[in-house]
Design brief:
By secondary structure, this protein is of the alpha+beta class. 22% of the residues lie in helices and 22% in strands.
Length: 141
């Protein structure tokens, strides 16, 4: 079964997940843990993307002092467009960002990714700080 078949998505992948967690092939990422973003509420979803750039943001912006990591993952159930990035901010889904209530399985680690330039990363952090100051939280329902 391909990732697209398992996901029920038209996007063939491959799919990525950016984080600071140290994971191994076969590990499952599941909802129900503290979110890496905002007020760190319990996440009802696990997020994945079909672009290395979006995964890079996830790896760079995740909470924690550990180095960012990007994993190739496969969804084990249906995925849907991430409403935090689609329709509200970007019509359609140009970032190819998704979420699922089902686990995603780690297949391998991407080791040769390149982070954003420091000034671009700082601008994104400043933007996220402003959203937090305004009380804007990720859609979690």
């Amino acid at each position: 079964m391909t990732s697209a078949d398992a996901a029920g998505s038209q996007d063939p992948g491959p799919f990525y997940h950016g984080t600071k967690a140290d994971l191994r092939p076969g590990d499952l990422l599941e909802p129900g843990y503290s979110s890496n973003f905002g007020e760190r509420r319990t996440a009802n979803f696990v997020y994945l993307t079909a672009t290395l750039d979006a995964a890079t943001w996830g790896a760079e912006l995740a909470v924690g002092a550990e180095p960012g990591r990007i994993y190739v993952v496969e969804p084990t159930g249906p995925i849907e467009d991430d409403p935090n990035l689609t329709d509200k901010k970007f019509p359609g889904n140009p970032t190819r960002s998704y979420r699922t209530r089902e686990p995603i399985r780690v297949l391998s680690e991407v080791r040769d990714w390149e982070g954003h330039p420091p000034h671009v990363l700082q601008a994104m952090r400043d933007h996220l700080d402003e959203l937090r100051r305004l009380g804007v939280e990720a859609i979690n329902d």
